[in-house]
Amino acid sequence: MESTLETTKTPQWGTRKEAATRAKCSPRTIDRWIQAGILPAAKVGKVVRVNLHDVDRILRGNAA
């Protein structure tokens, strides 16, 4: 049976560091993606959060 987490579009929010670990890159690369508009982000307090599903989408090559 498939996991409902994988089949739903519920955002899974993570930090820049978590996104970088998932993408196997540096947090600075995540910053560049955010600044370029490739990766949407939200600032919660002093912490920048990204939707980890968006990171997966970028890694699959569906950045549009």
Rounded mean pLDDT is 87
Q: How much of the polypeptide forms β-strand, as a percent range? A: 15-25%
Number of helices: 4
Return the CATH architecture: Orthogonal Bundle
Order of helices and strands: HEHHEEH
Give an account of the 3D structure.
It contains 4 helices and 3 strands. It has 64 residues and is an alpha+beta fold. The chain has a single domain, classed as Arc Repressor Mutant, subunit A (Orthogonal Bundle). The chain has a 3-stranded antiparallel β-sheet with strand order 1-3-2. α2 runs parallel beside α4. The mean pLDDT is 87.
Key words describing this protein structure:
single chain, 64 residues, alpha+beta, Arc Repressor Mutant, subunit A, three-stranded antiparallel sheet, 3 strands, 47% helix, globular
Short description:
By secondary structure, this protein is of the alpha+beta class.
Topology:
Layout: H1 4-7, E1 13-15, H2 16-23, H3 27-35, E2 41-44, E3 47-51, H4 52-60
Helix pairs in contact: 2-3, 2-4
